[in-house]
Specification:
The structure is a single chain. Helices cover 21% and strands 36% of the residues. By secondary structure, the chain is of the alpha+beta class.
Amino acid sequence: MTATVSITETQVLTVLRSFILSLVSLDGDHVIRGLQNRVPMPAGDFIEITASLTSPLSTNVQTYAPDNSASLNKRSTQLSVQIDCYGVSAMDNANMLSMMLRSDYACQKFAASGLDMQPLYANDAHQMPFITGEDQYMERWVFDGVLQINPVVSVPQDFADSLEVGLINVDATFPP
């Protein structure tokens, strides 16, 4: 058995993408993961999400699962995700998403995912000029959505569930 983690980056970004799609009037092809090589930008308005920073919020909490022969290590972690909104609706989308990541609606959506994660806050959106390959300016508004994830890393652990006690005559077994 190798180590496993209970919450992956892909799972977190999938939940965030679903949350975004529940609020904006874009199809699924227009909410994309950032840092993709050799993939053209979608035409028109779109949103790009990129995990950018993790910081521990606590020390590890270790528990044992003898039934699974595993040691479980949980640590609350803060995950910052950069959210870039492009196009003519960029400012409106960025402000709406930034506001809604601070709402009970977001907490309910994230809880419904079944993953141990919640939004913490989002900073204010700001404009970041973007020049396309055609040397044209494109509207781009950026903010960070900050989430708390509580991943559990499971590693193999040996356990003893029975013990045999006996006497050994040391001098006879291990002569001096």
